[in-house]
Each structure stands twice: as structure tokens, then as C-alpha cells.
């Protein structure tokens, strides 16, 4: 998906570079037509240049949004949040991830391990205030070993939020624990 976005961006940039001349050619060969084309194309290009950094593209199938943008306000349960994740399984450099706020500070958070019916491996079932919010797996899609987060005292610590999604292969607080609120940015869905 990231590759597709990069290819699309390169194509759009190359087309935008010659767009004014093409528009003028399509309108005729009079010199005034080039000025008219530039008057139409340049404001569109400037608006696009301003708007694109305002939007974050979500490249994860675990979130039901393709694009999000920052939204001021207090983070509430169910809100989309974005943050930089540093974890060996995420790669050598920090990556921007978008998740849902699932369990808030002070909420009861319990993880119950259960064996798989087929493999005997243990899965962690996470409950927030008695409601199932996520299930951790012992191994990732590529076969790497995953270690489930184990809540210490059954409560989400103050100043942190348990983030994640309902996607079975999501990599989230099921594995790295709650995230500090100061690292989170509240987001809203654009697309």
C-alpha cells in the first residue's frame, strides 16, 4: 500500500509539473491562455501543497480509515490516536502508527491466557471493564514469536491508554502495553 502511494505521488508530481503548459496547449496557442491556465492550476497546486501535510495516510488494514488528521481535544475511548512506535518488530526506525483508544487510565484491564484448541499455543484475551477488547497471539504472520503484555495490577496506569484494534493481526498494546498519553495525538477520520 505504501508502494502504491509512493508511485501515485511520483506520478502526480510529474503531471503537476507540466500541467499548466498542457492546459494552455489544450486551450489554444494564444499567450493569454497560458496565463489563464496558470491562474487555474497554480492555486490548485498550492492548495494541494498545503493540504497534503495536514493528512496522515493510514497504511494498516487494522484501522477502518485511509486518511486521518489531527483533531484537538481530550482523547476518549474509541478515538483514533497516532504516535511514534519504537519496537524491534516494527523495524530499526520509529514508525508512525494509528490505533484506537480502547481502555482508559484507571479502567480495569485483565488478560486471561487460554490454550488454542488446535495448536496448544496460548492466546491472551484482554478485557477492559469486563468487555473483551483484544486477543493476542503467540506468533505473528511471519512466524516471529510475540510476547503478550501482562497488566501488573489489573488497572490501566494513570497517564497511559491501552491502544489497539479488533484486527487479529494488529500489533498494538496487546504486545507493548499501554502508551503514555503525552505521546498520543487525537485523530479524526478523513477518508
Automatic annotation (TrEMBL):
It comes from the Bacteria. Keywords: Plasmid. One of its GO terms (molecular function) is serine-type endopeptidase activity. This is Peptidase. One of its GO terms (biological process) is signal peptide processing. The keyword Membrane does not apply. Coiled coil: none annotated. Residues 42-183 form the Peptidase S26 domain. InterPro entries: LexA/Signal_pep-like_sf, Peptidase_S26.
